[in-house]
Amino acid sequence: MVFDGGLAPGYTAVAVAMTEYAESRGYRVWAAREGFRSLAGASIEPSRVEPLTSEPGLAAGASVEEAVARNLYGHIRDAGSPFRSERFHGFHEDEAQREAARFILDEGFGTCVFVGGNGTLQGAKSLASSLEPHVHVGFINASVDSDLRGDRSVGFLTALEEGARVARGLFADAMTHHRHYILEMMGNRGGKHALHCGIAARAHLIVLPQMDLPADTMDEIAAQLNRRNHSLTVVAEGYCKDRRPEEQSAADYLRECLAEHGFADRKDRRVIAEPYSRYIRGVRPLAMENEGILLKCGLLLDSFERGASQIMPYYLSPHEIGVRRLDEVYTDNTVEPEYLDLIDRFNLESLRTHAHERCRA
């Protein structure tokens, strides 16, 4: 198993479920310590992989090999991940992918399961073309933003619940103390996390990364906010990313823009930018997420045993479950039009027209 990407809630649950199911079918399970970095031989830690088990007592075990295995029994609701995960940009290099393929084949691994979001999917696709046909390749979609068409990603519901909880807390504080909060949330390109958290928390305004609000719309927003003694605005972290300094948050940038259009922070009216983005790292997955994880892992192993490879299990609802080929899976950052009518409480025609032009499916 190779965990890479942004560490969505539920990474450990995937490791637990896959290990439990695989061991019951006779597999021996290993995990890359540092995702693609380990496969490419660029590890920071000394060991590139480590053995896993889900059998109680084995890690204390009957042999030296079992004694060093990481025992995942009972850890399905753990937060975070025991494996280092990041977007390893060095994996774009051809030599890194060749080294990864050599390592997998030399070590005798017959099955590789990659866990992460869109970037991890692209890495898995590239690597699969360099592996021998007998090596089965699978992918588990795990990301906060759920930006792959036709699947609800592992971690999406948990991140939505936690994000909406934080947003609603700021909403209550704003209402009580007459403050205006601009809360940054995750969403570099698609903004589904920011969108759904903002809707669930009943934010006054939601700004997505696809948007580039024109001056007349900013004037209207500033005018509406000036009429209120409190508000909550949710902005995705990718908003105007190419226009602001790298170290500046989207929330702080939007606050500056609103000030230029007449809605500024003052002693008697606080406008506060909250750079929330990554606080959901390490949140325990919801129990209902674990149900989807178990289904996906079982579907993946069933498909491997039927001879399939380069596949992704998907779970959309209790009536929409299955497996897709990786070449059928693609990134989709559009937004269904019904959601776009929920991005503000001001009924601003110019804003909604702009959103439909930039974001709609």
Verbal overview:
The protein is α/β, with parallel strands linked by helices. The chain has twelve helices and twelve strands. It has helices spanning 11-24, 36-39, 64-67, 94-106, 118-128, 156-177, 192-200, 215-226, 250-260, 287-305, 337-340, 349-359, and strands spanning 2-3, 29-32, 49-53, 70-71, 111-116, 136-141, 180-185, 205-207, 231-236, 271-274, 311-317, 320-325. The strands form four sheets. A four-stranded parallel beta sheet has the order 8-9-7-10, with helices on both faces. It has a three-stranded parallel beta sheet with strand order 1-5-6, with helices on both faces. A three-stranded mixed beta sheet has the order 2-3-4. Helix 5 links the parallel strand 5 and strand 6.
Strand content: 15-25%
* Helix content percent band: 25-40%
Count the E strands.
12
From the N-terminal CA to the C-terminal CA, the straight-line distance is 33 Å
Mean pLDDT: 91
In the sheet with the most strands, the strands line up as 8-9-7-10
The helix/strand series, from N terminus to C terminus, equals: EHEHEHEHEHEHEHEHEHEHEEHH
Report the C-alpha radius of gyration, rounded: 22 Å
Low confidence ranges: 60-64
Structural class: alpha/beta
Number of helices: 12
Largest sheet: 4 strands, parallel
Features:
single chain, 361 residues, alpha/beta, 3-stranded parallel sheet, 12 helices, 12 strands
Short description:
The chain is an alpha/beta fold. The chain is built from twelve helices and twelve strands.
